[in-house]
Amino acid sequence: MPLEKLNHMLVNDVESLKKEGRAKSPERIIVDFIPARNGRGPRYKLRNSTQEFLRMNSNSYLSLSHHPELVGAADEATHLFGVGPGAVRFIDGTYHPHVELENKIASFLGYSAAKIFNSAYTANCGLALAISNDKTYWIGDQLNHNSIIRAMRIAGIPRDNKAIYKHNDMDELKKCLEEVPGDMERVIIITDGIFSMRGDYAPLDKIVKLAEQFHDNFADGVITVTDDCHGTGAYGETGRGTPEFTGARPDIITTTFGKAFGVNGGAIVASPEVIEAVRQKADTYIYSNPLSPADCAAAVKAIEITERQEGKDRLKNLQDRISQFRQGLEDLGFESIPGPHPVVPLLVRDTAKTHQLVQHLFDNGILAVGLTFPVVPRGDETIRFQVNAAHTSGDIQQVLDALAGSKN
């Protein structure tokens, strides 16, 4: 068999990951969804189990993925346009829902143009390909998402053309700006809006001010980019995410429809000139099929719901449940990282105890994710909880009761 030798080596690779503690556990397979009822939110069933589980590990912050208007919009678009686009965008793969969604997300975030991708990961990669050249210098936060780090590599950014500052350390960011080589013509500061493992946020107001301070030092200026995938729709007074919460406006936002909006896909939101450059130069846009028309139609509907009173009510319940959960953790004596976001980390600071607590939660019908060394540094072992708008007060109390029981 041609793959015998390769198979053997790959098995060894995976075994090495297991020994290092970096291997992923077997994937749990969801086989059923039980709608909210009797004062409790939705529950899920897994293969080979009769137990009903409460999900505390979902990015669907506004709990819109089962909304009948989203399902109806997707169904209508599917019947009209089919289940897939049949081509990349520039080869007649652009349908009305694609353009409608681009206009909708740009308007929602207060920008003039947008380009959608089949994921936020490919959006970040496409942006780096489109706006970088050999005279571009990139500066990023130490805890930026993997997609940003990978985007730098895919775009071929040389080691000498980039710098990293300590997490949210504005003094270090200023130092990085001061140390940009003199032959650079363009500087790009890129950061997550919400850091997904911690639930804390970038101080965009301070970052934008620093960028303005150094802007005239470079021919093409200093450009601010925020990956607000975990922010858009999830917090801020009206769900506009980290820019709204911090009162700042980055030059470019990358975001997703796959979290708060509960659908699929990603987007770059910026000026028309940036978006046209993306359309012309971003390989991950040019050579990859776009979202289906159904995904786009559902995402448009999700944004519309977010903008109306129902969306505000969902956001309010989300904020109330976050407050309830954070206060409950504090009352129980657990350690967390402060923040306004639905990502609520519980710092366990021990690998074995983290695994035990995750199993205890599972035994009590709660799905949560433990992060241990070497995914996080020793001493930072964490359980990441994610609160959703469909969670009820009773749901949050169930989790707190289970955590309280773990101390007995």
Helix proportion of residues, in percent?
40-55%
Strand order of the largest sheet: 4-10-9-8-7-5-6
3D shape: globular
Tell me the number of strands.
15
Which structural class do the helices and strands define?
Answer: alpha/beta
**Beta-strand proportion:** 15-25%
Name of the CATH class of the largest domain: Alpha Beta
State Rg.
22 Å
* Number of individual domains: 2
The second-level CATH architecture of the largest domain is 3-Layer(aba) Sandwich
Summarize the structure.
By secondary structure, this protein is of the alpha/beta class. The protein is built from 15 helices and 15 strands.
Protein architecture, described:
This protein is an alpha/beta fold and 408 residues long. It folds into 2 domains: 18-66 and 309-405, Aspartate Aminotransferase, domain 1; 68-307, Type I PLP-dependent aspartate aminotransferase-like (Major domain) (Aspartate Aminotransferase, domain 2, 3-Layer(aba) Sandwich), CATH 3.40.640.10. It is 43% helix and 17% strand. The chain is built from 15 helices and 15 strands. 45% of the residues are buried.
Fold topology:
Layout: H1 4-20, E1 30-34, E2 43-46, E3 52-55, H2 68-81, H3 89-93, H4 96-109, E4 113-117, H5 120-131, E5 136-141, H6 146-154, E6 162-165, H7 170-178, E7 186-192, H8 204-214, E8 222-227, H9 241-246, E9 252-256, E10 266-270, H10 272-281, H11 283-286, H12 293-307, H13 309-332, E11 335-336, E12 343-347, H14 351-363, E13 366-367, E14 369-371, E15 382-386, H15 393-405
Parallel strand pairs: 3-13, 5-6, 5-7, 7-8, 8-9
Antiparallel strand pairs: 1-2, 2-3, 4-10, 9-10, 11-12, 12-15, 14-15
Helix pairs in contact: 2-12, 4-12, 5-6, 5-10, 7-8, 12-13, 13-15
